[in-house]
Write a structure and sequence with these properties.
Blueprint lengths: L1 E6 L6 H8 L6 E7 L10 E3 L5 H11 L4 E4 L4 E2 L4 H9 L4 E10 L4 H17 L8 E4 H4 L12 H12 L1 E11 L2 H6 L1 H16 L4 H10 L2
Parallel strand pairs: 1-2, 1-4, 2-3, 6-8
Antiparallel strand pairs: 4-7, 5-8, 6-7
Helix pairs in contact: 8-9
């Protein structure tokens, strides 16, 4: 079974994300992981004890029953055949996990440039960012879940752990993610915001402090 963990605040885009998830014949379960203070009801909703996407994801992983995990942002939709692609690639025991290629839900020159840049960044560093739909085997990552139980930069840590466990793969199919944050702030300011956080993390600054900066910019 494939377990899809969706860290969410209950945004409007969630309905589209869920619609893309269920287009498969594979057995799946969906876990909606919310932070404290966000009210959503249902058997598939779990709440983290602390605010931050990484905390939500870890709470969601612990609630799952599947052997394969897919972490999906709530403003990102999956391509057709997504489950087949994941199952087929993880049939190779040398592959520890991976993610999908990325495209935005609208096209401009600068957004197309960022799409290409994200592919280049993966090939340069092997690093996935969370909006790519990262997938892996639950039993591989569960012993290391404390590493990603942080409010932000959990995708960077997860990428690093997956590379230590085996080879990672960038699938050619595209997930489609919202360009809303670039629209609200402007492309330059949003890119600067991301680079600032990633650089701070590389310099050893605490993810808790980085998260506080990130929240102030929301």
């Amino acid at each position: 079974m494939i377990s899809i963990v969706i860290p969410t605040l209950g945004t409007r885009s969630l309905a589209q994300t869920l619609a893309s998830v269920v287009q498969t014949n594979h057995q799946i379960e969906v876990i909606l992981a919310v932070p404290p203070g966000v009210s959503m009801t249902g058997d598939t909703v779990v709440s983290s004890e602390q605010k931050g996407r990484g905390h939500q994801i870890v709470s969601g992983i612990h609630a799952t029953k599947g052997e394969v995990m897919l972490i999906l942002h709530d403003d990102t939709t999956l391509p057709k055949g997504w489950a087949d692609s994941i199952v087929n690639i993880l049939a190779n025991p040398a592959i520890s996990g991976g993610g999908f290629a990325l495209t935005f839900d609208r096209s401009t020159l600068w957004l197309r440039f960022l799409e290409r840049l994200s592919r280049f960044w993966f090939h340069l560093t092997g690093e996935f960012w969370g909006d790519r739909g990262m997938f892996f085997r639950k039993n591989d990552i569960l012993p290391y879940s404390e590493e990603i139980d942080i409010p932000i930069m959990e995708d960077v840590r997860l990428s690093k752990r997956l590379r230590r466990l085996g080879s990672t793969v960038l699938l050619p199919e595209n997930v489609v993610t919202s360009a809303g944050s670039f629209d609200r702030r402007g492309i330059f300011l949003q890119v600067l915001r991301i680079v600032r956080c990633r650089t701070a993390y590389a310099l050893g600054i605490s993810p808790n402090l980085i998260h506080s900066w990130y929240q102030k910019d929301v």
